[in-house]
Structure formats: structure tokens, C-alpha cells
Model the fold of this input.
Amino acid sequence: MKPNNLESLWMPFTPNKTFKKDPRIIVGAKDMHFISDDGRNILDATAGLWCVNAGHGRKKIQDAVYNQIGELDYSPPFQFGHPKQFELANRLVEIFPEEMNHVFFSNSGSEAVDSALKIALAYQRARGKASKTRLIGRERGYHGVGFGGISVGGMVKNRMYFGSMLSGVDHLRHTHNPELNAFSKGLPEYGAELANDLERLVQLHDASTIAAVIVEPIAGSTGVLPPPKGYLKKLRELCTKHDILLIFDEVISAFGRMGTPTAAEFFDVTPDIICCAKALTNATIPMGATVVQDHIYNSMMDHADAPIELFHGYTYSGHPVACAAALASLDIYKEEGLFESAVESAKYMQEVAHSLKGTKNVIDIRNMGLIAAVEIEAREGAIGSRGFEAMKKAWELGVMIRANGDTIAFSPPLIVKNEQIDEMFETTKKAIESLN
Ligand SMILES: Cc1ncc(COP(=O)(O)O)c(C=O)c1O
Done:
């Protein structure tokens, strides 16, 4: 089943040379499992890349996609509309926080983020605050791979190779504090005051130059960092005080990961803009969405200085097939009560994850919603090597986990059963114990 030449493909975020010597090839997937090319069932402890929230191979989505291609395979999104993109926008605003009533479609999380940043800048200009151009991200943030996303992002390897990126960007301090918060169950106790770091940046740049702050409500790709208790509320207050937009990057947290449609609802903190993607279509068809509050959309409609209010869009914005997949996914989430069942599974997963405390080399365990992380101590001079080897070992043992450096992240589909949670962590424990 292995392709006979692996060289033509340049794989993303993958050590190509190492992978091609010892490839891991996936040929199928159903419900909670991948099928490897040697015919093994591999338990999916990561919902792919935090995205297959309803589990794999869902017939309802398959049928919706198939039928949509027959009915309307494509229509141009500039100057023309098709019914499903309006329907989907309506369905999304029904489940997003109350004031968030307008949706701009794209094709990925990175594009949803770049769209949010561009909307923030265009909005400030439209309402007569054209000096507000600075974008504030956070250290250890991940906002995809566009130049906007890496500029506000705060992961060094994603930035250091790519020149000067966007100008006029600054970063809040990250919130990770293992000295005080290691092995916290749920939200860490200490660190809400780190939101005050925005005051430092306001002192430095002045609020009249700052358009927006973007953060992940829970940082994922940097190794699962739940926000300290009270941090997001404080950040919201400061953004409001200084007339700065707050953007939540919910590419991994939207659609049930917290047991709610968005993390904004979970934290009871409403940002001005939410970016989402991934589970929007259960990952079957690429799609991103940037959802904004009324005041942003209305301001653009009333004050933009050209007939086209926003000079931005993608050939595949609101693609009919992606819309069909998203509508079917939203149906499944609702009909099967998956956001609600995620709440129960999250409680169970918290206890099972924390039972790995005391395992060789484990230095921290973190969790929030249906997300958990087990951090192992880095080898001296070889950061990430233990994480990578643990991932490979778990694959051999039949479980797909994800290593972000030396942090192993778990974000299973919301359909996960308790015995599968047991299997995820038992296998991970074995994998970690096998490492030197
Ligand atoms: C928080 C966050 N933002 C943006 C992205 C980028 O999404 P995509 O890979 O679909 O461009 C990701 C991907 O993992 C993410 O976790």
C-alpha cells in the first residue's frame, strides 16, 4: 500500500528526511480510528489536528457533499450568492455569542486569522481612527502560517526563518507559569494579572496606535496552555477601556471542544471577533470563518469609503461544498448532543490524564474542556526529541497522539468513550516509560 516514491511531495511541518525513511501512512478512517497501511486500527486521540470533532467517516456529511457537487459545484462569491452560504452564516450566528451576527468565510484557520486582522484595520480606518494600526499578539501564540498570523504569533521557529514579517506588531507576555501552576486541574490559579501587560504596551505605543489584540482563549499548538482564572475577563476589560478590538482565535476551541459552541461562551467573555475553522466542517472540506460583532459590520457598512465595503475575499469564500459539509456537521453536533457529551468526557479525561502524575519524566499535566496535555522533561540539548519518540512509539502501539515539542496533546473527537480515554493514556504512559 505504500506509494513507491515519497520524494516528490514536500510535506508540511514534517521532518521530510526522517519521515521518508520510516513513513507513517494512513489509508482510511472510521469513527474513532484511523487505519494504517499495514491494516492496523489506530485510536485517534487528537481528532486529526483538533478538527474531526464528530469522528471520522460521517455518512451525513458524505451525502451532503456528494449531493452538493451534483446540485451546485461552485459559484463565484464576488458579486453573486448561493443559498447555503447565507444559511450557514445564519446557523453560525445562532450559536455564537449574542452580539456576533456577521460571518466572513475563508478556507482555513490561517485565512480566518488574516481576515480578522485585515477587518480590524479596515474597521478602525472606516470609523475615523486610522492611526490605530498596531496589532498585538502574545508570546507562544499560534495563529496559522500567513504573514499576518506569524507576525502576531509567538512561536520562535514559525517566525525566525521568515524575515521581518508585518511591521507595527507587538506581543503580550505568555501566561505559562509552571513554577506556580504545574499539575493544575482545569484553569490555573495564578496569573490573571498578566493581562495587565497590555497596559505596558499601551504605555509604550499609546492606545491611539493600537487596532486589536489577538489571543487563543486556550493556546493549543504551543503545548496546551489554559488561561489563568480571570485572565480573559481582565483582558476584555482592558481592551474596552482602551478602545482596542479583542480577537479570539478559536480555530481549535470552537465547536464543542469546551462543551460550548465557542470558548467565548465557556469563559463568558465576548470578543469583538472570533476566528474559527477546522471542526466547522468536521475537517472534511477546508473552510474558515471570521465572525464579527454588529458594531464592526455596521460601521463598515455605514462608513467604508467605497461601494465595496471590504476589499478582501477568496475564490473559495463560502464554497458551496464546504457550506454543505458545515451544515451537515452542525446538524450532527446538535442531533447527537456532542457538545454536551464533551462536558462529561472532559470530566473523565481530566482524572485519567492527571493519573499520569508520577510517571517517569512527566513534569506537568494540564487540561481544560476536552483537551489535555502531558509534558515530559526535555533531554538536554535535544528539545522535542522525547516528545517525537513518544509519538512514534504510541503510533506503533496503536494510538495517534500529537507532540508539540515535549508536550503530548490530547484532543479526541467528541464521540470518544471512556474506555478509549483509558486506552489513550495507558498507551501514552507505556510510550513515555519506554524512553530513556
Ligand atoms: C489557534 C490556531 N489558529 C490558526 C490555525 C491555523 O489553521 P490552518 O492550519 O487551518 O491554517 C491553527 C491550526 O492549528 C490554530 O491552532
Observations:
- The longest helix spans residues 109-126.
- The CA atoms of residues 134 and 210 lie 4 Å apart.
- Residues 62-335 form a domain with the Aspartate Aminotransferase; domain 2 fold (CATH 3.40.640.10).
